[in-house]
Specification:
The chain has a single domain, classed as Beta-Lactamase, CATH 3.30.450. Helices cover about 25% and strands about 25% of the residues. The N terminus is likely disordered.
Length: about 160
């Protein structure tokens, strides 16, 4: 386990302070790319995601059997795969695992799904996490991929 999440990101938070509204920006790009249909992953890649792509993932739904099949994981988000949570209901889960927990919700709702929660790291520090998952479709109609974005910050007195 990585002992200091803060060192991972060169800051005292999981995502820099300026990125605390990342989930809203990602959904805004998703909505502009949708144009009345589900956007495709290609359309999202063509949009200007800037540094937000560092905190995003995309899962191929057809290839996800039992576990998410990632076709894209942002560089900074990928590092969260080594940061584990504690607690009976979180045992063995990483922050990245938690970020992908709402893939099914986005598919079922056929709309962006938001989550805000407090997670506890194995070292006892708490992270206030925001995440969004949103459906993507290669043909504009049938959900083929799910895009997600996650960010957060350490809770006060963490």
């Amino acid at each position: 386990m990585l002992s200091d999440v803060g060192e991972l990101f060169d800051a005292p938070a999981v995502a820099p302070a300026k990125d605390r509204r990342l989930t809203r920006r990602v959904v805004d790009v998703w909505a502009r790319a949708a144009r009345g249909h589900f956007p495709s992953w290609q359309a999202m890649q063509a949009a200007d995601l800037g540094d937000d792509a560092d905190w995003m993932f995309v899962v191929d739904c057809e290839k996800s059997v039992g576990f998410p099949y990632f076709v894209f994981v942002g560089g900074r988000l990928a590092k969260l795969a080594d940061v584990f949570l504690c607690g009976a209901d979180q045992l063995g889960l990483s922050l990245l695992d938690r970020a992908t927990a709402d893939i099914a919700a986005a598919r079922e709702r056929e709309a962006p799904h938001f989550r805000e929660e407090t997670l506890v790291l194995c070292d006892g520090r708490r992270i206030l996490m925001r995440a969004v998952t949103a459906p993507l479709a290669d043909d504009g109609e049938t959900v083929s991929h799910v895009l997600g974005a996650i960010n957060g910050r350490f809770a006060p007195n963490a």
